[in-house]
Specification:
Elements: H1 8-20, H2 25-35, H3 68-76, H4 82-87, H5 100-108, E1 117-121, H6 127-136, E2 141-146, E3 160-163, H7 169-179, E4 182-187, H8 196-203, E5 207-216, H9 237-248, H10 260-263, E6 269-272, E7 275-279
């Protein structure tokens, strides 16, 4: 490998930029590659750090010959309605990884057509709320929250939009109160390791029994710009998920529970590529028997 170096202040400036504006990741990647002349296969080794999530996300582009809908259907053997709703989205931009679409349908399907209360963290351009409105139907109570005041202009279109931080506990409580409670939470917010656990601790207890709590885009758990890295003590999988697994099995060890506000009401943790689904249901003491 040819040794390549950049001034630390340049890397830290880029790191700060992406941390505060993750939507600029692709542009910054191109700057580092094209303008600074670093070969793509050597970018992760700049200064021996992975300060910028130097994974070329363009390698994951869908098969354009098939098109969006057929790429989802053929790759995941999926025949549900959500692929079409997503692929035919118009007007407001929506950006989703294709593996999410069948998973959304698997977990959200039982709630379609019902007066569910759905909260999405992260509104962005509004396309996601638009997709959920078409999927869940007119009876659903749909809210989105975002830190960007520009998102306020989307209020009342596909759902209600409130401006505030996902780590502001009073703000979160006020939104759930306004909704009259919440059945499903989808965290598609900052994707930052410092933020996700705060939001989870605040909102999971408010989810109704029988509801769901989803966290997506968790590939960021492996990126230092989002507060994570591979098997680091800040990686969401290494910390929160491991704690929940240990808590789930607290009956069988003597080390107690680390996150009882979640684990006492979470009988199931489902881990998919970049997506975690937490079931909300009262956890009961296990029992056993022997029958002959």
């Amino acid at each position: 490998m040819t040794e390549k170096r950049l001034d630390v202040t340049v890397l830290e400036a880029l790191n700060h930029l992406i941390s505060n504006h993750p939507q600029l990741l692709a542009s910054v990647y191109e700057i580092v590659h094209d303008r600074l002349g670093l070969p793509k296969n050597e970018l992760p080794y700049v200064l021996g750090h992975n300060r910028i999530p130097l994974i070329d996300i363009h390698q994951f582009d869908y098969d354009r010959e098939l098109g969006v809908e057929m790429d989802i259907r053929t790759k995941y053997n999926y025949d549900g309605i959500l692929a079409r709703i997503y692929a035919e989205n118009k007007g407001c931009l929506v950006h989703k990884w294709h593996q999410y679409i069948p998973l959304y349908d698997r977990y959200f399907g039982p709630y379609r057509g019902k007066k569910i209360r759905f909260l999405e963290i992260g509104v962005s351009k509004g396309g996601s709320l638009q997709m959920w409105r078409k999927y869940f139907g007119d009876e659903a109570i749909i809210y989105g929250i975002d830190l960007d005041p520009e998102c306020a202009k989307l209020d009342g279109q596909a759902g209600q939009v409130r401006i505030g931080s996902q780590t502001d506990l009073q703000f979160l409580a006020s939104v759930v109160d306004e909704m009259g409670g919440v059945d499903i939470v989808l965290d598609d917010g900052s994707h930052h390791m410092d933020h996700i656990p705060v939001t989870l601790k605040a909102l999971f207890p408010k989810v109704s029994e029988g509801g769901l709590y989803l966290i997506e885009d968790l590939h960021t758990a492996y990126w230092e710009t989002f507060g994570g890295s591979y098997r680091s003590p800040t990686n969401f999988f290494s910390t929160v998920i491991q704690d929940l697994i240990d808590d789930m099995h607290h009956w069988y060890h003597k080390d107690g529970q680390r996150r009882p506000e979640v684990s006492n009401f979470c009988p199931g943790v489902h881990i998919h590529d970049s997506l975690v689904v937490l079931e909300k249901q009262r956890v009961l003491r296990p029992s056993r028997s022997m029958i002959a």
